[in-house]
Design brief:
Radius of gyration: 29 Å
Number of strands: 3
Helix content: 40-55%
Largest sheet: 3 strands, mixed
CATH class of one domain: Alpha Beta
Order of helices and strands: EHHEEHH
Distance between the termini: 39 Å
Length: about 120
């Protein structure tokens, strides 16, 4: 179950003195509303939320970090593959031929006027 977190400006508010002097009421308010913004001089300084909600948020954050790292690893692998291709002995000649063609197709595909050059595998 995913915790629905409201925007900061939509949270019930308690000032720091109320939290200190009326802890029991603040705890009930957190349980009732899901979270409470704690203010000091009318500025929100922190948010109280139940431990279960905190754990859910922490798990979701960790899952996002793992997903982002996986995406970065995949991009690094693709980069390394492309770099390896560019470091092959025949690569400079192929790049020179590509620039010399100036966007025109050569070989068997050149006769097909409807086909245009494609840039990369994902184009």
């Amino acid at each position: 179950m995913t915790a629905e977190l409201r925007q900061l400006d939509q949270l019930p508010r308690q000032n720091a003195t109320q939290v200190k002097n009326r802890w029991g009421e603040v705890v009930r308010l957190v349980r009732q509303s899901g979270s409470v913004a704690i203010t000091n001089h009318a500025q929100v300084e922190m948010v109280l939320l139940p431990a279960a909600t905190y754990e859910q948020v922490a798990q979701q954050l960790q899952a996002l970090k793992v997903q982002r790292q996986s995406q970065l690893d995949e991009l690094a692998q693709r980069f390394e593959q492309r770099l390896a291709a560019l470091q092959q002995p025949e690569a400079p000649a192929q790049v020179d031929a590509l620039f010399a063609a100036r966007g025109r197709l050569s070989g068997p595909a050149a006769g097909k006027a409807a086909r245009r050059p494609k840039a990369g595998a994902s184009f």
